[in-house]
């Protein structure tokens, strides 16, 4: 059986990943809606990818601290 602390750390790590995914998807969707059409889709995907790259390292550190701690 897993300890409660380990379970909480895993849950927190999943919450960080879910927050990262939600941020990327919301920015991509908002950009797509604002620009519209095929150009909006390309702009939304670009905005989502750029956001993911910006948040990748901080999210990785947070997850690493949670899992290793």
Class from secondary-structure proportions = mainly alpha
- Which segments are poorly predicted (pLDDT under 50) over 5 or more consecutive residues? none
Using the CA coordinates, give the radius of gyration: 16 Å
Beta percentage is under 5%
The major pleated sheet works out as: none
How would you classify the quaternary structure? single chain
Please count the beta strands (DSSP E, at least 2 residues each).
Answer: 0
Helix content: over 70%
Query: What is the 3D shape?
Result: elongated
As for the number of domains, it is: 1
The average pLDDT is 79
Q: Total helix count?
A: 2
Q: H/E order of the elements?
A: HH
Distance between the termini: 19 Å
Could you walk me through the main structural features you see in this protein, from its secondary elements to its overall organization?
With 69 residues, this protein is mainly α. It has one domain (4-68). It has helices at 4-35, 37-68. The chain starts with a helix and ends with a helix. The mean pLDDT is 79.
């Amino acid at each position: 059986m897993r300890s409660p602390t380990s379970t909480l750390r895993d849950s927190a790590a999943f919450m960080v990943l879910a927050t990262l995914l939600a941020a990327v998807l919301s920015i991509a969707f908002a950009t797509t809606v604002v620009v519209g059409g095929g150009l909006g889709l390309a702009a939304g995907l670009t905005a989502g990818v750029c956001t993911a790259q910006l948040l990748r390292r901080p999210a990785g550190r947070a997850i690493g601290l949670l899992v290793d701690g």
